[in-house]
Q: What sequence folds into this?
């Protein structure tokens, strides 16, 4: 059975980028076995314009989080400010089963929906 032990990841800040007349902060979430390669970065940059909502007068800015998956997958979360102060989010994924690639991360022997629903963040102040 595959080792599904949690492994710490590294968050790195990247230089801002301008895409589709919007300016984005950029963050990468990586690990030793899941780097963001030049190919992944290039593919993510091509996706940015497809993920941004229509302009609504809010300053054209946002932030992007690009995750490298340990199984060769990549995940892109693009947050764009809309309605003056609301973060709009769209995401994209590559190398996943929906894209004809087997997903064998986080697969238990049997799904535990009750356990998933019972495991929630505690109420309290955010930090």
A:
């Amino acid at each position: 059975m595959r080792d599904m032990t949690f492994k710490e990841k590294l968050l790195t800040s990247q230089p801002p980028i301008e895409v589709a007349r919007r300016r984005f902060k950029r963050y990468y979430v990586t690990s030793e076995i899941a780097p963001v390669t030049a190919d992944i970065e290039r593919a993510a940059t091509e996706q940015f314009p497809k993920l941004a909502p229509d302009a609504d007068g809010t300053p054209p800015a946002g932030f992007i989080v690009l995750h490298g998956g340990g199984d060769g997958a990549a995940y892109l979360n693009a947050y764009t400010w809309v309605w003056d102060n609301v973060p709009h989010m769209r995401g994209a994924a590559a190398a996943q089963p929906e894209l004809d690639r087997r997903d064998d991360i986080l697969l238990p022997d049997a799904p535990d929906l009750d356990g998933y629903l019972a495991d929630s963040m505690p109420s309290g102040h955010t930090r």
Notes: The chain has a mean pLDDT of 75. The two ends are 36 Å apart (CA to CA). The beta strands are 10-19, 22-30, 61-68, 74-82, 86-94. The CA atoms of residues 69 and 87 lie 24 Å apart.
